[in-house]
Amino acid sequence: SAAEKGGYTSFMLKEIAEQPRAVADTLLGRIDGSGALSLDEVRIPPKALREADKVVIVACGTAFHAGLIAKYAIEHWTRIPCEVELASEFRYRDPILDPQTLVIAISQSGETMDTLMALRHAREQGARVLAICNTNGSTVPRESDAVLYTHAGPEVAVASTKAFLTQLVACYLVALYLAQVRGTKYADEIRAVVRDLSSIARSVERVLETMEPVRELARALAHKKTVLFLGRHVGYPVALEGALKLKELAYMHAEGFAAGELKHGPIALIEDDLPVVVVVPSPRGRSVLHDKILSNIQEIRARGARTIVIAEEGDDEVVPYADHLIHVPATPTLLQPLVTTVPLQVFACELATARGNEVDQPRNLAKSVTVE
Ligand code: G6P
Q: Going by CA atoms, what residue is nearest to atom 8 of ligand 1?
């Protein structure tokens, strides 16, 4: 009913709007006044966390994209090798796991069959499993050694939005916690990131306040057959997520690529007026990434692409190459997916609506895939 949707026309719009709150709630009480992580709920002994020599993340769909982003944070801050795998692939091969492996299973519902079977398989090999889950008492956390709950609140729309942002927050918390327990040479950077996390909900809110041009653009592109998404580093999984959202909601051909792979194939797809969304990393810090993507944008634009550029406020260098520019607040690179994903959700939701699709219940999809 309209009341359940809190005045929004769909649950998806309501859930997109709830993201600042969901992010803040997921951080609540987990960082103490001194900036230290307090995650007692992660009931895996610190000794086991110190001895872990590998992290393996398993998940499906949007949760898998959260895992891909987590890998960048975990490997950078903790120097533990981290693999990310689709649960459906993981469970049917012969993965190498032992008691020193920390498996992280990410699932909004906690009921996805492939994720559940993957974690059972991991535990049979003696690995420890930490669940990141949004649904209290669901099967995935019940069968795991420990759980870090996301506090997104119930997510009703089939396409995941606020659960995804909170999965990212939980992944950052786990990465920072591992770094804290094990010691890290990035202590200063981590202190800064913890500070940035405390203002990130406000940044998400600011993105939401500036979405009207994105909605307009989505309506203008509603007749298109294909949209491509490019990103690098953590922007690459964001590109995959942007493409997944368009497939799920708009039933449109959409693909995400690592921008560095352009020359190995995707650039052959570029034709006149093809919309290409590019997620641009922050020009501060690791600016080499920024320079690389600038040349990628130039390459596709020279071949006729219509460039839709998501870039940090104040990033003037991208302006000459952007047919459409979407600004997000300045955010450290590793945390940037929390702000760059939001315009892509709004874009897909509006485009699907313009095409007359039912956004809360896309055809052929289920909120939780509890069968094979
Ligand atoms: C389905 C949903 C997706 C979700 C995926 C994984 O495909 O439509 O939105 O990302 O399942 O679900 P989970 O509950 O395990 O996160």
A: 367
Fill in the amino acid letter for 66: A
Please check whether residue 220 is in contact with residue 212, taking contact to mean a CB–CB distance below 8 angstroms.
no
Beta strands in the chain (DSSP E): 54-59, 82-86, 101-107, 128-133, 146-149, 226-231, 253-258, 275-279, 306-312, 324-328
- Residue 169, classed as helix, strand or coil, is helix
Mutate to test the pocket of ligand 1, among 156, 160, 365, 371 (most ligand atoms within 8 A of CB): 160
What is the rounded distance in angstroms from the CA atom of residue 322 to the CA atom of residue 308?
Answer: 6
Give pTM, 2 decimals: 0.97
Measured in Å, residue 366 CA sits from the centre of ligand 1 at: 8
Q: Could you tell me how far CA 186 lies from the centroid of its own chain?
A: 23
- Cα–ligand 1 centroid distance for 137 (angstroms): 17
Map tokens 């596709």 to a residue: 300
How far apart CA 208 and CA 206 sit, in angstroms, is 5
pLDDT in tens, 218-267: 999 999 999 999 999 999 999 999 999 999 999 999 999 999 999 999 99
Ligand 1 atom with the shortest distance to the CA of 61: 10
So what's the ipTM on this one? 0.96
What is each CA distance from 277 to 56, 162, 209, 236, 251, in whole angstroms?
Answer: 30, 21, 20, 11, 17
- Type of residue found at 47: K
Ligand 1 pocket residues where CB is under 6 Å = 60-63, 107-109, 112, 115, 158-160, 365, 367-369
Q: What is the DSSP string of 169-213?
A: HHHHHHHHHHHHHH--TTHHHHHHHHHHHHTHHHHHHHHHHT-HH
